[in-house]
Design a protein that fits this description.
With about 1400 residues, this protein is an all-alpha fold. The chain contains 70 helices and 7 strands. A 7-stranded parallel beta sheet has the order 3-2-1-6-4-7-5. α66 links the parallel β1 and β2. The two termini are about 65 Å apart.
Length: about 1400
C-alpha cells in the first residue's frame, strides 16, 4: 500500500484545502464504518488512511482531537477480539497507528501505549492460567526500579476491570511497528530530543515507557499462546533491544546490561521448570535470538562490548548441555549453533573482563580451538547411521580425555548423542568402544561421573536385545563379556576410595530399583565377583541386594535366580562393610541368598558364607541359635491362631534363623547338638501337622546322622506311614535285623488307593513306595496289576506337568520305580500296549518339554540292556521301535528361556568341564538330550556280529531307521539345522554303526532305499552318512556293485543323484574286497568316462575326483596292468596328469578332506562319525558329540568301532582339547595342508554358480541402466536397491561407499545379491563429475524428483542407455545436480501421504524401465 498511499497523501496535502480534506475524511469514515463487504472496507481504508494523514498534518492544532475522533473508534472496532475485519485491513491500520504514535508521541502516542496496549498485555498476564510457576507480576515488580513506573503499573493493574479487551496480537503488532518506526528514523521524526534522554524519573519520557514495554513483554514470554510468544520473541523484544542499543539514542551501557539481564533471568526461570514442561524447549531459541544483544554483536568498530557475557555463567552452559543431550532435534540444533558461536567469539576476541572462567569453559588460546574441533567432530559423527564412518573417529575421544582439555561433562554429551542413535550397529559399536577402554585414568574419569554411568550408560545398556546372540540367547554374548570386563575395570580404576565406595553403593541400589534387563544385572554381578574386596555395602545396600535376588520382576526363571544368588553370595562377602552390619542384617541376607539355592556343605558358596559369618560376628553360640530355632518352630506350629504375630512373619523369622544356623555348624559335635535341640519339635510336631518349613538338614553330612536316623526313627516312620504321611524311602538297614515289615499285596492295594488321592506334597513319597514293592518277586505282579499303578501315576504326572517345583521330583521317582531290572526282565510286562511301554512313551513325550527326563530313563534302560544277557537282549528286541526313537531323540530347545538357562549353566560350569565340552553339544549343560543318543548308540556299538539275537535286533533297528528317513516330507524344502535335518544326521550316525549287521537277504532292499534317499537328499551334511553306509554295504556285498554301475550309466537321473553316486565311487577303489577289485576296476573307468565330458561343471568335477582316486587305488593295489594296457584310459589319465589346469585344479581338490582324504574304513570311529564329519560340513556345534562322552559311559573300547583312530588325528580339526594338546606335542607326520581348517564343499553340489561367479558377474548381458544412489546413506535403502537392481538386471549400482557391504545387515537385506550385482563407489562430492562422464559416454541422465517440469512415470519413455539419479531421503536431488539432468520423472500419487521411501520409489522406476525394455525386445 505504501507505494500508492504516500503519493496520494502528498497529492491531497498539496492540492486539497482544509474543508475538502475534512469532508473527504468524514465521507470515507462513514463508508468504512458502514461497509459490509470486506473488499469494499479494505479499498476504502486504502484511501482513508492517506486522507487522514494529510488532514492531520495540515492541522496546526487539535490534532489530538482529530485522532480521538477518527482513529480511536477504528482501533476499537478493528482490534476487538470479535472483529470480522480482514487481516489486510488490520495490518494497514496497525501501520497507520504506529506512525501516528511516533508522530504524536507526547499526546496520542503515550495515551495509546499506556491506556490501550500495555493494559491489554497486563490483562493477558492476569488471565493466563499457566503462569503459576513463573509469576509475571512479581517479575515486573522486581524488574521495574523507577518509582514512577511502579506507580503506573499499579494504576494500570487497578484499572484492568474497566479495560475493553482487544486482540492481543494487534496490540503487540502495533507496539512492534511503533518501535520499528523509531528504529527506521526518517524525516518525520517528532520525538523531542530531551524526551530521548533519561532526564527525569517521572516515568513519562520515551526511555522509561520503552523500558516498561520491554519489561512487560519479557514477563509475557512464557505465554502458552504460541503466536503471542512468537511475536514477542521474534519481533517486539529484538526491536526494542535494537532501539536501546542504537548509538543515536545514547542509552548508558549499564541500562543496556539491565535489559539483557532481564531477558536472561526470565530464560533461567523457564529453564527451572520441570523437564516435562514444553516451555523449556523455548529457551534455546531465545538464547539464539538474543545472542548478538548479549555479546554486543555486530560491532561497528573494533572490539565488541558484551552486555551479558554468558561465557562466565555456569547456568548458561547447563542450558547448552541440556539442549545437546536432548532427544529433540531443534534444541540440539540451537545448542550446537550457540556453542559454535561462543567458540568463534572467544577465538576472535580476547577476554577483557576480570571474571573467572567456569569449569565448563576455559579459553586459553588457539589450542582450545583444536580440542573443540575434535569435540564437534565426535559429537556429529556419533549420530551417523553407518558404523564404518564412526569407528575411525572414536580414537580421538581418548586423546581428548587424556589431555583433560575439556570438562568431563562435554565428553558425556558425546556419548549421550551416540546413545540416542537409532541404528543398533552404531550404538552397539559405540558401547563396545567404551567397554574396550583400559586406561585407568580414562576409566576413573568415567566412573566418577555418576550422571554418565547411571543416567546414560547403564540406561542404554539396560536392553536385553544388545546381548542377544542368534541361537545362543543373551548370556553367551561377546558384547556381554566386554561389558562385564568394563565394569570390573572401572571399579578397579577408582583412585579415591570414597568415590569407589559411593559408586558401589549406588550401583547395587540402581540394579535393584532401576535396571530391568536380567542380562545387564547378571553381567554387572559377574563383574562385582571379580573386583577386589572393598568395605562398601552397609545395611541399606544389603537390603537392596535382598530386594534384587528375592523380588526383581525379571528374574522369574529358576535357573536365572540360581545364578543370580550364586553371584550375589560372592559379591556380598566381597563388598560388605562388616563393621557396620548387625547380626540381623547378615542373617536376613544369608536367608535370601541361600533360599532355593542348592547349597551343600562341600560347595564353595557354603565355605564363602561360613567364613563371612565367622568374620562378621563374634561369640556365635550354636546352642542359642538352636534354641531360637526351636522356639520359633513351636510358635509357628502350635500358635498358628495367635493374633499377635502374623503367620508369614513367624515363618520368615524361622527360615532366617534356620538358614543361618546351618552355617554355624562347625564339626560333628555341633551336628548332634543342633539336631537333638530341634528333632523332637520337627519330627513329633511338624511331620504330624503336615506343615512345611525350611530344614537345614539337607546341607549337613549324612554320615553323621545315618545311624541315628535308622534306629531312632524306624518306629516313628512306621507310625507316620500308617497315618498317611509316607516317608520317601523304605527303611532298610542291617542294624534292624530281620523284621517283617509289610505284606506286598496289602500295601500295594493301599498304595494304589493313596496314589489315586495323592497331593503334590506327598506324591513323591507315595510313588517311591512302589519301588521296593514292584521289585519284590510276587506272583500276582501281572501286567494288569502293574497297569493300575502306572496309569494312575501317568495321570498324576500329567496333572502336575506345569508345577516347576514338584514335577521334577515326581517324574524322577516315577522313572526310578518303573524302569527297574526286575520289571524290564518280565516279557509280559513289556509287550506292546503294556504298562512298561506306556510309561516309556509318556517319558519320551514329557522329555520333549522337560530336559533331563528322558536321559534319566535312558540311563536305567542302558544299565540293564548293556549287560547283554539273554533276558536283556530279548528286552532290547521288544523295545526296538522305542530304541530307534531314542537314537534320534533331541527336540529343538530354542525358546528364549531355554537359551537363557543353557547360557547360565555354561557360566556356572567348572572350567575343566567347559574345556572338555567345547565344540560339542555337551556345552549345553541344561540339556542332556545328547546323552540319550550316546547311551543308545553305545548300546548298538557293542553288539556282537556273531550273536544271532544281536543280528536280529540290529536288522530290526536298520528297518526302523530307514523307515524313519524314507519319507517324502523330509526332503521337501529342507533347510539345515531344522528338526528334519537333525533327524537325518542322527539317523545316519546310528545307521553307520548298524549297517555291518545287514542280512544278505535284505541287502537289495536296503540299497534300494538308500539309493532312493540319495536321489532326493540335497543337503550334503546328512547325505554323506547315506553315501558312507552304501560304501560299507557294497564292501560287504560286492556282488551288488552292478546296482551302482547301472544307475551310474543312466543319463536320466538328476544331477545331485549323479554327484552322490560319484561320491560313493571315491572310496570304492580302496574299500572293495580283494576278490572283487579286479571286476570293479574293469567297470568303473568305463562308467566314469562319459561324465568327464558333461556340460554340468560340478559333475565333471566329481567324476574327475572319482577317476583320480580310483586310478591311484588301482595302481596301489597291484592291478595297474588292467588300465595301463588300455590306450584310451591311459590317454585320458596322461592328459589329466600333464594339463596345467588339471594339475592346478587337483591341487585345490586335495584341500577338501571329503574329496581327497576321507577313508570309510580308517575313519570308522566314534570321534569321526559323531564329531569330525559334522565339522567338515559345518554342522552346528550343538549337534556334535565328542568321543569322550562315549568314554564316560563305558571306557572299554571296541575293535569294531573304536573311540578314535590315533593314526588319523593329524587330519582331524575338531578333536577333544586334551587330544589336541597331545597332538601338538608330537611331530607332524603329514603334509601341512592337513593341518588347515577343512573347508566345506557343500556349495559345490548346488550348481555351477559358485565356481563361475566371476564369469557370470562379468559376462552376463545386462540392461544399460545405471542407478546412482550416492546421495543415500541409510543401509536398508542401499541394501534393498542392491537386491532390486540385481533382480531386474541393472548394469551397475553406484553407492557412496563400498565398505557398507561389510555391514552384517547389508547382506541380510540384500539376500547376498551383492555377490552378483556390479557396484562402484562414488561419493556425493564426485557425483557431478560422474554424471558428466556418463553423459559424454552417451547415457541419458534422468532424475527421480518432483519438479515443475517432471514427467509422470507412466508417460515417460526411457531411453535404452540411462542413468537414474536418486535423491537424498528427505531433501531430494540438490539444485546443482538437477540442472545437469536431461529429464526428471515423478511417480503419480493418489493417497494422503505425499512421499514414498527412496528405495520403494527407485524400485518402481527400475521396474518400469525393465518393463519398457522387455516390451521393446518383444517387438523387435
Amino acid at each position: 500500500m505504501d507505494f500508492a498511499s504516500v503519493p496520494f497523501q502528498k497529492l491531497l496535502f498539496e492540492n486539497a484545502d482544509d474543508d475538502q480534506l475534512l469532508s473527504f475524511l468524514e465521507q470515507l469514515d462513514l463508508e468504512y464504518s458502514s461497509a459490509i463487504d470486506e473488499k469494499t472496507r479494505f479499498g476504502t481504508l486504502q484511501i482513508l488512511l492517506p486522507t487522514l494523514k494529510a488532514h492531520v498534518l495540515r492541522l496546526e492544532s487539535d490534532q489530538e482531537t482529530c485522532l480521538e475522533t477518527f482513529v480511536k473508534p477504528w482501533m476499537l472496532s478493528s482490534f476487538s477480539q470479535d472483529s470480522m475485519v480482514s487481516t489486510e485491513s488490520v495490518m494497514a491500520l496497525e501501520g497507520a497507528v504506529a506512525f501516528l504514535i511516533k508522530r504524536f508521541f507526547d499526546g496520542f502516542g503515550k495515551t495509546c501505549i499506556m491506556q490501550m496496549f500495555l493494559p491489554q498485555l497486563l490483562l493477558a498476564v492476569r488471565l493466563e492460567p499457566d503462569f503459576v510457576d513463573l509469576d509475571p507480576i512479581s517479575f515486573i515488580e522486581n524488574s521495574v526500579d523507577v518509582t514512577a513506573l511502579k506507580n503506573r503499573v499499579d494504576e494500570m493493574m487497578d484499572a484492568l476491570d474497566q479495560v475493553v479487551m482487544l486482540d492481543l496480537e494487534c496490540c503487540i503488532s502495533c507496539l512492534n511497528r511503533f518501535v520499528m518506526e523509531l528504529n527506521d528514523g526518517g524525516d518525520d521524526q517528532t520525538i523531542a530530543e530531551d524526551d530521548k534522554v533519561d532526564q527525569e524519573d517521572d516515568g513519562s519520557d520515551i526511555y522509561h515507557i520503552m523500558e516498561l514495554i520491554f519489561t512487560i513483554a519479557v514477563a509475557l514470554i512464557p505465554c502458552t499462546d504460541t503466536t503471542i510468544r512468537t511475536k514477542l520473541t521474534h519481533d517486539l523484544l529484538p526491536n526494542l533491544l535494537r532501539w536501546q542499543q542504537s548509538s543515536k539514542n545514547n542509552v548508558p551501557h549499564e541500562k543496556q546490561v539491565k535489559w539483557c539481564e532481564m531477558v536472561w533471568n526470565r530464560t533461567l526461570q523457564m529453564f527451572a521448570l520441570p523437564a516435562t514442561n514444553l516451555l523449556r524447549l523455548e529457551i534455546y531459541g531465545l538464547t539464539v535470538r538474543f545472542f548478538d544483544f548479549y555479546f554486543g554483536l555486530p560491532c561497528q568498530d573494533g572490539k565488541p562490548v558484551p552486555r551479558k557475557d554468558l561465557r562466565f555463567n555456569e547456568s548458561f552452559f547447563k542450558i547448552l548441555q541440556s539442549g545437546l543431550r536432548s532427544n529433540d532435534s531443534l534444541p540440539r540444533k540451537y545448542a550446537s549453533y550457540i556453542l559454535k558461536r561462543i567458540i568463534d567469539f572467544s577465538d576472535k576476541y580476547n577476554k577483557t573482563e576480570d571474571q573467572e572462567w567456569t569449569r565448563y569453559f576455559n579459553w586459553t588460546g588457539k589450542e582450545c580451538l583444536d580440542h573443540w574441533d575434535d569435540w564437534f567432530l565426535l559429537y556429529d559423527i556419533a549420530h551417523e547411521n553407518v558404523i564404518h564412518l564412526v569407528e575411525p573417529v572414536l580414537p580421538r575421544f581418548e586423546v581428548l580425555l587424556n589431555e583433560n582439555a575439556l570438562d568431563a561433562s562435554w565428553w558425556i554429551i558425546i556419548f549421550y548423542r551416540g546413545f540416542q542413535n537409532d541404528v543398533p550397529s552404531v550404538k552397539k559399536g559405540l558401547l563396545e568402544y567404551i567397554f574396550s577402554r583400559e586406561n585407568k585414568q580414562v576409566l576413573n574419569t568415567m566412573g566418577v561421573e555418576q550422571s554418565f554411568m547411571f543416567n546414560a550408560l547403564l540406561k542404554t545398556v539396560d536392553l536385553t536385545n544388545l546381548f542377544q546372540v542368534p541361537t545362543q540367547g543373551t548370556l553367551v554374548s561377546p558384547f556381554g563379556e566386554q561389558f562385564r570386563k568394563f565394569m570390573r575395570n572401572i571399579v578397579g580404576a577408582f583412585i579415591d576410595k570414597e568415590e569407589k565406595t559411593t559408586f558401589l553403593k549406588q550401583l547395587v541400589h540402581h540394579m535393584a530399583h532401576f535396571i530391568s534387563s536380567h542380562a545387564t544385572i547378571l553381567y554387572i554381578m559377574e563383574a562385582l565377583t571379580e573386583v577386589e574386596d572393598t568395605d562398601a555395602w552397609g545395611p541399606d545396600e544389603l537390603k537392596s541386594l535382598r530386594l534384587l535376588v528375592d523380588r526383581h520382576r525379571n528374574f522369574n526363571v529358576p535357573v536365572t535366580k540360581k545364578f543370580l544368588r550364586r553371584l550375589a553370595i560372592t559379591a556380598a562377602t566381597k563388598l560388605s562393610n562388616t563393621t557396620s552390619l548387625s547380626f540381623s542384617d547378615i542373617a536376613k541376607t544369608i536367608s535370601s541368598l541361600v533360599n532355593q539355592y542348592p547349597i551343600t556343605s562341600q560347595s564353595d558358596e557354603y565355605k564363602i558364607i561360613y567364613h563371612w559369618l565367622e568374620k562378621s560376628t563374634s561369640g556365635m553360640d550354636i546352642g542359642s541359635l538352636s534354641l531360637g530355632l526351636k522356639e520359633r518352630i513351636k510358635t509357628y506350629i502350635c500358635d498358628l491362631n495367635s493374633e499377635d504375630i502374623p503367620i508369614t512373619v513367624l515363618q520368615n523369622q524361622a527360615n532366617v534363623l534356620a538358614r543361618t544356623s546351618v552355617f554355624a555348624i562347625k564339626n560333628e559335635e555341633d551336628v548332634f547338638i543342633y539336631w537333638h535341640e530341634v528333632e523332637e519339635t520337627i519330627v513329633s510336631e511338624w511331620l504330624l501337622q503336615e506343615e512345611s518349613i525350611y530344614l537345614p538338614i539337607r546341607v549337613t553330612r549324612k554320615d553323621y546322622l545315618q545311624w541315628s536316623l535308622d534306629i531312632a526313627y524306624y518306629e516313628r516312620c512306621v507310625k507316620l506311614y500308617n497315618s498317611r504321611c509316607y516317608v520317601s524311602t523304605m527303611v532298610k538297614s542291617d542294624k534292624l535285623g530281620s523284621k517283617q515289615v509289610f505284606d506286598p499285596i496289602t500295601i500295594y492295594d493301599e498304595a494304589v488307593d493313596q496314589l489315586d488321592s495323592a497331593s503334590q506334597v506327598c506324591g513323591e513319597a507315595v510313588i517311591d513306595v512302589f519301588g521296593p514293592l514292584l521289585a519284590f518277586p510276587w506272583k500276582e505282579k501281572t501286567a494288569e496289576v502293574v497297569s493300575r499303578c502306572v496309569d494312575l501315576a501317568i495321570d498324576f504326572m500329567k496333572e502336575n506337568l506345569n508345577q516347576s517345583k514338584t514335577f521334577p521330583v515326581l517324574i524322577r521317582s516315577f522313572i526310578n520305580v518303573i524302569f527297574q531290572p526286575e520289571l524290564l526282565a518280565l516279557p509280559e510286562l513289556n509287550e506292546e500296549g503294556g504298562p512298561m511301554k506306556k510309561a516309556l512313551k509318556m517319558v519320551i513325550e514329557t522329555g520333549d518339554l522337560k530336559p533331563f527326563t528322558t536321559a534319566q530313563c535312558t540311563e536305567l534302560l542302558h544299565k540293564y540292556w548293556s549287560q547283554y544277557t539273554p533276558e536283556s537282549t530279548q528286552s532290547m528286541i521288544q523295545y526296538a521301535d522305542e530304541i530307534a526313537s531314542l537314537l534320534t531323540f533331541g527336540p529343538l530347545r530354542d525358546r528364549e528361556d531355554q537359551k537363557l538357562e543353557a547360557a547360565l549353566a555354561l557360566k556356572m560350569a567348572d572350567p575343566v568341564q567347559r574345556a572338555e565340552a567345547d565344540g560339542t553339544v555337551e556345552t549345553i549343560f541344561t540339556q542332556n538330550d545328547y546323552l540319550v543318543r550316546v547311551l543308545m548308540n553305545d548300546l548298538i556299538m557293542r553288539l556282537d556280529t556273531n550273536n544271532e539275537d544281536h543280528c536280529l535286533f540290529a536288522n530290526k533297528m536298520i528297518d526302523n531307521l530307514l523307515a524313519a528317513i524314507n519319507k517324502d516330507e523330509l526332503y521337501d524344502y529342507t533347510h539345515t539345522f531344522t528338526a528334519e535335518h537333525r533327524l537325518k544326521i542322527r539317523t545316519g550316525c546310528s545307521l553307520l554303526l548298524l549297517i555291518d549287521f545287514a542280512d544278505g537277504s535284505k541287502a537289495d532292499k536296503y540299497l534300494d532305499i538308500l539309493f532312493k534317499i540319495m536321489k532326493y537328499e540335497t543337503v550334503t551334511s546328512s547325505r554323506c552318512y547315506i553315501e558312507w553306509s552304501v560304501v560299507r554295504l557294497l564292501r560287504r556285498f560286492p556282488d551288488r556293485l552292478s546296482r551302482l554301475y547301472e544307475d551310474l550309466s543312466s543319463p536320466e537321473h538328476r544331477p545331485n543323484y549323479i554327484i552322490s553316486l560319484l561320491t560313493v565311487t571315491f572310496t570304492l577303489g580302496d574299500s572293495v574286497p580283494d576278490d572283487a577289485c579286479v571286476e570293479h576296476f574293469s567297470e568303473i573307468f568305463i562308467k566314469l568316462t562319459p561324465w568327464l565330458i558333461t556340460n554340468h561343471y560340478t559333475i565333471r568335477l566329481f567324476s574327475y575326483c572319482a577317476w583320480k582316486r580310483n586310478w591311484t587305488s588301482c595302481i596301489e593295489r597291484g592291478h595297474g596292468d588292467l588300465i595301463l594296457k588300455n590306450k584310451h584310459l591311459t590317454s585320458i589319465s596322461t592328459f589329466t596328469d600333464t594339463y596345467v589346469d588339471c594339475i592346478k585344479f587337483y591341487e585345490k581338490v586335495k584341500l577338501h578332506y571329503y574329496m581327497s582324504t576321507f577313508d570309510p574304513i580308517k575313519d570308522f570311529n566314534i570321534e569321526f562319525i559323531f564329531r569330525q564329519l559334522p565339522t567338515v560340513f559345518e554342522v552346528i556345534d550343538n549337534e556334535k558329540i565328542g568321543s569322550r562322552a562315549f568314554m564316560r559311559v563305558n571306557p572299554n573300547a571296541m575293535d569294531r568301532c573304536p573311540f578314535v583312530n590315533p593314526d588319523r588325528k593329524v587330519y582331524y580339526t575338531a578333536a577333544d582339547p586334551t587330544e589336541e594338546l597331545i597332538t601338538a606335542q608330537q611331530p607332524s607326520t603329514g603334509d601341512d595342508i592337513f593341518q588347515k581348517k577343512i573347508l566345506p564343499w557343500e556349495m559345490m553340489l548346488e550348481s555351477d554358480m559358485d565356481f563361475t561367479k566371476h564369469n557370470i558377474k562379468e559376462n552376463r548381458p545386462r540392461n544399460h541402466l545405471i542407478v546412482v544412489a550416492s546421495l543415500i546413506d541409510r543401509l536398508p535403502n542401499l541394501a534393498g536397491l542392491c537386491r532390486t537392481c540385481e533382480i531386474f538386471n541393472a548394469e551397475q549400482l553406484i553407492i557412496p561407499s563400498l565398505k557398507i557391504k561389510e555391514e552384517p545387515g547389508f547382506s541380510t537385506i540384500s539376500v547376498s545379491s551383492d555377490r552378483w550385482m556390479p557396484m562402484d563407489e562414488v561419493t556425493e562430492a564426485d557425483v557431478i563429475s560422474f554424471l558428466t562422464k556418463k553423459k559424454e559416454e552417451g547415457y541419458f541422465l534422468c532424475g527421480l524428483e518432483q519438479t515443475t517440469t517432471s514427467s509422470s512415470l507412466g508417460d515417460f519413455k526411457f531411453p535404452e542407455k540411462c542413468v537414474l539419479l536418486l535423491g537424498k531421503e528427505r531433501q531430494g536431488i540438490p539444485a546443482d545436480m538437477l540442472q545437469m539432468l536431461d529429464a526428471t520423472v515423478e511417480i503419480p500419487q493418489y493417497g494422503i501421504t505425499r512421499s514414498l521411501n527412496v528405495h520403494v520409489s527407485g524400485a518402481i522406476c527400475i521396474y518400469e524401465y525393465t518393463k519398457q525394455m522387455q516390451w521393446k525386445s518383444t517387438l523387435q
